[in-house]
Amino acid sequence: MTQAVRRKHHYIYRITRIDGSGKYYIGMHSTDDMNDTYFGSGSLLSKSIKKHGKDKHIKEILEHLPTREALKLREKEIVNKELLGDKLCMNLKLGGVGGFDHLNDGGLEHRARASRAAAKRNRELPKDIAKAQAAKATKTRRERGYIPWGGKHDTFTGKKHSELTKSRIGLANSKFTGKNNSQFGTCWIFNDEGSIKILKEEIESYLLNGFSKGRKIKAGLV
Q: Does domain 4-99 have CATH number 3.30.710.10?
């Protein structure tokens, strides 16, 4: 059972910009505390709050639902294609998924389960089939140019990079500027429940909902 499912309260909310524009956002939220600081998580909503100020937006609860599943179904009914077609609507996707609630509602857990299932399937394969699949994958990588360093066909062995090339490689792999680095464009944030890694472009939305920059270290690890 995921964290969101275990929450006491499940509701549909609407946030409206009160500057006369009529812009609005509709979402869902599950919580144990009806007075928490949650104030929506849509990217357009976050930009609106950043530009016009949180005081120019009001939040109202439209409906309470008995369970998380009922909540998702209800949001799916409300935030439909017709609503997304409204020029005043700040929602960008169909309902039923949630904002960053999906991180607590099985998104990360689903990927972890899929990874474990794939690993289990590989272990259960007959050795000859597993070996053949591994050989095929290696052949594919080689055909695409992914030759292991120091490998049999590595034409770079015994050579050295120039200082200019080294600096370019370092820049390409830098966590600040290098898109070749898997950490590029991401950052860690945390709240009382733990830490998650997100895209930097999403950080404003999370900060507005009680998260802080950085990574929360578990007790006993320092």
A: no
Predicted confidence (pLDDT) per residue in 79-117, tens digit: 999 999 999 999 999 998 755 444 444 444 445 555 666
Phi-psi region of 47 (alpha: psi -120 to 50; beta: other; left: phi over 0): alpha
Half-sphere exposure at residue 70, Cβ-oriented, CA atoms within 13 angstroms:
9
Find, among 26, 35, 182, 206, the residue nearest to 104 by Cα: 206
Task: Write the DSSP assignment of 94-127 as a string of letters.
Answer: -SSS-SGGGGTTTHHHHHHHHHHHHHHHHHHS-H
Low-confidence ranges of the chain (pLDDT < 50): 1, 100-110, 149-150, 220-222
For residues 101 and 86, the answer to whether their CB atoms sit within 8 Å is no
Strands 9-17 and 212-213: unpaired
Residues 6+ apart with CB under 8 A from 81: 94
Q: Which residue has the tokens 């509602």?
A: 105
Task: Provide the residue ranges of all domains of the chain, joining segments of one domain with +.
Answer: 4-99, 109-160, 161-222
User: What pTM did the predictor assign?
Assistant: 0.47
